[in-house]
What does this fold into?
Amino acid sequence: MLIVQKFGGSSVADAAKLRRVAGIIAEAKKAGNDVIVVLSAQGDTTDDLIAKAHEISPEPNRRELDMLMVTGEQISISLCAMALQEMGIPAISLLGWQVRLRTNSEYGSARIRSLDTERIQQELDQGKVVLVAGFQGVNRRGDMTTLGRGGSDTTAVAIAAKMHADLCQIYTDVEGVYTADPRIIPNAKKLDEITYAEMLELASMGAQVLHNRSVELAKRYGVELEVLSSYVRKPGTKVKEVVKTMEETKISGIAKDDKIARLALVGLKDEPGIAFRIFRVLAKEKINVDLILQSIGRDNTKDISFTLAREDLNRAKAALEKAQDAIGYENLTVNDQVSKLSVVGAGMINKSGIAVMLFEALAAAQVNIHMISTSEIKISVLIDSSKAEAAMRAVHRKFFEE
Ligand code: ADP
Ligand code: ASP
Ligand code: MG
It folds into this structure.
């Protein structure tokens, strides 16, 4: 079999953990498999590198920031190759450019365009474990790019898809995908399996256990994923197209996203073209917006508010302020103390009862809702960050513990 194994930052944080990971890899190799390994940077390395950049510049140049961040993964793959070699297992580490992992030039959130399997295959054919640096690629000019925080998952899935791997295992610091972040909700239950669609929503709504783009890729190429623990050797959670219990379970999980902010434009003219003018400004800046709310017009004015990633807030504010006359609004207000809470489940289609349960739990916990948005398999609410954990506990209790 061809197996792709990915290990996250906490799993490779120090020498002892790297040896433990090397042990898991060695086991798969000794069982007669071809093994490709994708690693993240050790522990908090990526955060530390970003902090270093900010010591020099408040808005670091994006190309240079990627140049800096890619060094983290180089450290873990080379050390892990040494650990394997110490165990008598032939291994080689390769960076993104060495496997020709090509991306576009969106520094900090680059998208994968292609991947050359030739070098990887050559090394596998020589009996080596191939360790590939996660999270990084090269653009058309040969400059280093990164795929966005948590992007090593996406590297692993891309390689699994392109190499037609039989298995893609995502090893992390929890035992699988839970009904909610087990660090916040100790009573959260581990799921045996979850559909791509649900996992994609959970990941996009803030459950950082998988990079959302890795789930998107896995779905597109039919790569079945397993999320499992680096520490406890037992089955984790399978992420796949169809699961056994799909119709029965209404909700599979709850996610929370604290890295967002709300921006509101007050006193807009109530006329055609306003939304276009606002969001065109943001699109030019390549800023994504999420929930959008437009008030009912009165006295020929209206308000539009929306949420966006907190890290984009300053850029969005600056761009909209510059365009104030062109757009035509009275005031711009921001709130960066908001969080988004989402309940996700394939079984909630056409079940208005789910919304009632959610609102009841929030009401009982005295949580005020600023915005609501729904999709076929998800309901999200925007609430104050100060209440977000309590809200999550209340909602989890309502859906999973009663
Ligand atoms: P890695 O470094 O292995 O990529 P991450 O920190 O990116 O690990 O993701 C694992 C973390 O995701 C867990 O420690 C957990 O706190 C968090 N998490 C959030 N939501 C969930 C969930 N629904 N199920 C499991 N873990 C979750
Ligand atoms: N090291 C990168 C990060 O922290 C990528 C990853 O861990 O997946 O975002
Ligand atoms: Mg991760």
User: Anything to note?
Assistant: The longest strand covers residues 253-269.
